[in-house]
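Why Putative lipopolysaccharide heptosyltransferase III? Reviewers of the renewal asked for a concrete example.
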Amino acid sequence: MVAELPAFKPLQRPLTKPPKRVLLIATRQIGDVLLATPLLRSMCRAWPETVIDVLVYKNKGQMLQGNPDLNQVIEIEEHPDFAQYRVLWRRIFRRYELAVSTLAGDRPNVYAFLAAPRRVSLIPDLLAQEPLETLDQPGLDPAR
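Here is what the prediction returned.
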């Protein structure tokens, strides 16, 4: 069984002008941050005057230091306590026109919701998808 990509819905109101400030959210491991760099580059080329910040987990964004496509790297602990969430809240709350989350998860989407009134994210339609079979499930032929 091949998994299909989730359906997407276009922006309700397309951008009519480039946003002034964008937050790119890539809160996973180093490889996920690395894979977000082409998106960062594309946004920078599309919107050369836009200030783009990147939110990553602590110690996962070193590879972005010195990248001319971004303004700053914002780091948060992987498992922040309440005080760390408050610091992040103060730092990102409605400071951006657009938040772009590269991940389909609750925390990245909450960060996007807090950061900007307009958000782009991956949100799979879990109700429409059938569960994938795994090797330990009956009916799956491992030779396939």
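The longest strand covers residues 51-57. This is the kind of structural detail the renewal will allow us to pursue systematically.
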